[in-house]
Amino acid sequence: MVATLWRVITLSLAFARQLGGQCQRIVTERILRKMSAYPKDLDQGWRRRLRSRVLRWYDQNGRKLPWRESADPYRIWVSEIMLQQTTVAAVVPYFERFIERFPDVRRLAEAEQDQVLHLWEGLGYYSRARNLHKAAGVVVHEMNSRFPESADELEQLPGIGPYTAGAISSFAFNRPAAIVEANTLRLFSRLIELDIDPRGIQGQKKLWKFAGWIVSRKRAADFNQAVMDIGSQVCCPVDPKCSTCPLMPSCKSFEQGRQSEIPLKKPKPKITDVTEVSVAVRKGGRYLLRQRTDSERWAGLWDFVRFEVRDEDVVTVQMPERRQTKGPAALPGQQSLFADDSAIALSQLPPSLSARVNDLTGTMVRSYEPVTEIRHAVTRYRIRLLCLVCNFEDGRLKQGAGYQWCSRNQLRELPLSTTGRRFAELLDACR
């Protein structure tokens, strides 16, 4: 097979030379580009054996997941968007709740964005939910509620990149589309012993070409599901299970003993420590909130008055000591309070914080009750968030700032950030 292939290439290049001039250059470039689709030291026999091993393993070991129960492009699309940057175990309950509430693309398109974001709470990366809602509108109003079948067409929808487009095209319509995501990136890099950064431009080109070259033409859906499963369950980031891997005979990295060093590690980002304050300004039984704008982190979600501070601005703010409690006050990563309301006394809010609240909202607050301290991370930021309750004393809401007085019932219904929801649950449970 290899000899035949190279004979065809040799004859084609000879023909190109006979053409001469511009025609020779164009034909030669196209032949060389075609050649580059065949990875070094791999041939069609290798590919045939690889496909057979992949599909045989999948027939026996493929995972049973709720979005694999049908070839419905809507369900597949929702699941793939949720699975971006999120584990399968975390996605399953969210997916089931989402499909129960929005069983088809039309129901999703008709929903309010707040409803979609509320169901998305806790999954993070909320731009995914906003784009999901936006794309549903496009499919319903511009495509008569029918998803396109090709990856190129799917990629034109908001929030759908090359991987998601390929996944929908292959899983829903069995088209032989290439897919490269975290698990297949690792698997493919090891299979071909990729010794450059797989996330760089050249590494991505090689992996996408390889993915398109190996995908089964007859069972594209099963093949792509299989390589993702093998990547996540067998070809693990640390201590890959090579002895039980169905692709061990095809793996160039295993052959060279390099499976632990490939793919090349991504440099760890420098972590920046940040201190922020979240203030629940209280007026009677209502709290001051606003919806975050498109240019902000957690766009579209609602939150209390929140801002970054210097450590010296909060040195006098006394937070409760950690205690063992049950219910909302015992959420992971936060400290408890309100265990004994009578023991809590109002404290003077540092002037710099009072001024900042006034500048952002137009309201005046002077004293506070400490609620909880939440430590969490967002991308490269490690955040220490101090949550305080302050009683409204004076002032008028600042025009154009977007703040609104919200009742406890509204707090339960509005989509909040994960930290905002923790704070709201404490306020609801303890007041």
Describe it for me?
- The protein has helices spanning 2-19, 21-36, 44-61, 73-83, 88-101, 105-110, 113-120, 127-142, 151-154, 162-173, 182-191, 201-214, 220-233, 252-255, 351-361, 408-413, 418-430, and strands at residues 272-283, 286-291, 302-303, 305-309, 347-348, 363-364, 367-378, 381-391, 394-395, 403-406.
- It has 431 residues and is an alpha+beta fold.
- The chain has three domains: 2-36, no CATH class; 47-255, Hypothetical protein, domain 2 (Endonuclease III, domain 1), CATH 1.10.340.30; 272-430, Nucleoside Triphosphate Pyrophosphohydrolase, CATH 3.90.79.10.
- Strands 1, 2, 3, 4, 5, 7, 8 and 10 form an eight-stranded mixed sheet that branches. Strands 6-9 form a two-stranded antiparallel ribbon.
- A hairpin with a 2-residue loop joins strand 7 and strand 8 (381-391).
- Helix 3 (44-61) crosses helix 13, helix 4 crosses helix 5 (88-101) and helix 4 (73-83) runs antiparallel to helix 10 (162-173).
- The chain is elongated and about 85 Å long.
Envelope shape: elongated
Low-confidence stretches: 1-6, 31-38, 323-344
Radius of gyration: 28 Å
**Averaged pLDDT, please?**
85
Q: What is the CATH third-level topology name of the largest domain? A: Endonuclease III, domain 1
Note the beta-strand portion: 5-15%
End-to-end C-alpha gap = 76 Å
Number of domains: 3
Helix content: 40-55%
What labels would you give this structure?
431 residues, alpha+beta, Endonuclease III, domain 1, Nucleoside Triphosphate Pyrophosphohydrolase, 8-stranded mixed β-sheet, 17 helices, 45% helix, elongated, disordered N terminus
